[in-house]
Write a structure and sequence with these properties.
The protein is mainly beta and about 375 residues long. The protein has a single domain, classed as 6 Propeller (Neuraminidase). It contains 5 helices and 27 strands. Strands 15, 16, 17, 18 and 19 form a 5-stranded antiparallel β-sheet that branches. Strands 1-2-3-4 form a 4-stranded antiparallel β-sheet, with no helix packed on it. The protein has a 4-stranded antiparallel β-sheet with strand order 5-6-7-8, with no helix packed on it. The structure holds 2-acetamido-2-deoxy-beta-D-glucopyranose (NAG) (3 copies). One 2-acetamido-2-deoxy-beta-D-glucopyranose binds next to loops. Keywords: Signal.
Length: about 375
Amino acid sequence: MLLHTVVSLLLLSVSETVRATPCVAFDINWNLLAFGLDGKDFNAGPQATWTGSGNAADITSSGRPPFDGANTTCYLSQYNNAIYVLNGDSQSPSSIYIYDAAAKSWTTQAVTTGSFNPGSFDAILDHDTNLFYALSNNNLFSLDMGSLKAANSSPVSWVDNEQTPYPSNYQPVMALAQNHVHFLNVPGVPAGSAEIFVIHYSYFQPLPQAYPLPDGSAFPASYGQATSFFQDSGVQEEFAFIPEDSSAVYVINVETNTTQSLAGPTIKDPKATYFASTDSLVQLTSNGAVYFIPYQEGNTSANSAATWSNVKTLTLAAPPSTASSSPSASSAGSLATGSSSGSGSGPAPNGALSGPAVDSGLVLTAVFGAMACIF
Ligand SMILES: *[C@@H]1O[C@H](CO)[C@@H](O)[C@H](O)[C@H]1NC(C)=O
Ligand SMILES: *[C@@H]1O[C@H](CO)[C@@H](O)[C@H](O)[C@H]1NC(C)=O
Ligand SMILES: *[C@@H]1O[C@H](CO)[C@@H](O)[C@H](O)[C@H]1NC(C)=O
């Protein structure tokens, strides 16, 4: 009876826990920005400082989104040094919040959605045109961000361009390189190949493009996450693909049409999201921990030897809910155990987080702790 009451009360608090979906991004100087960690935003600086003993700088300021959307995603507009946040506000899922990284200020851009579903899509932000391309309900949409680093008073609009040639059950995994949108894991396309949409010609290539590994093997035909490596200037030429099982990281180079394999993330979290700069691939786990692997474009021997590390300065500034929900932090295991209290939704779109609230792990610890005490 006592146990029942205690557990009921604690489970009640689990369901009342506010959902938090942080995201990570970079500014154009490759400072790592983490938004919505413990309800705050941080600038962790460049890679060289991440494993130091300082705290990341708190950059929380007014006008920011609450980061309580179901599937929050962030994008860097490199020409504008602005971060665009989609789905960062559960009260206004279609709004695009804009962070001007130079001015350190937030504004909210109103958006006309039309037939676009802001609750279910995957998207990339094209480097040169600053247009979003998104796949939603198997239609390709675009939205022109112009050169915005602060919101315009008139709304911007999602435009329904056309139906994709892909099967209607396709769950999009999208990546951008060389002004080409790559679609991974399209049903019927073999492992190691991607379908392509050529942005400048609004053209779906009729045949998939193969990106073999040097040994002739292929990245898996699997759901997963993808994110582009930036260049200091100019378009992205490579993107990382992290299959859902986190077994490896595949870096696809669209200049050479080859793939290189890197160590899989230490934390094997199918709900983790990723963001890359010029020299780092960053993982944000579903309980708010941040890890990275260094990357050197063109340096195969350095990349194949590279390993994952914790971004300590963010851990110090905003301790993740790891007490219970990340038994794998040091043992490369699975994250599933402590964080399985979420909605049980399917895989999330690119750059998205879905499922457990960031802090539900702690509450669950309390539940199990209480049960342990009583028995
Ligand atoms: C979040 O993403 C999942 C997976 O795509 C989807 O099922 C869910 O409806 C999305 N939720 C919202 C509120 O956007
Ligand atoms: C790589 O693939 C792209 C897209 O299919 C193609 O346009 C290009 O010619 C290929 N490049 C090489 C070096 O094979
Ligand atoms: C590749 O990386 C290794 C290890 O960091 C470094 O010593 C070497 O100089 C790099 N090579 C090139 C061509 O940058």
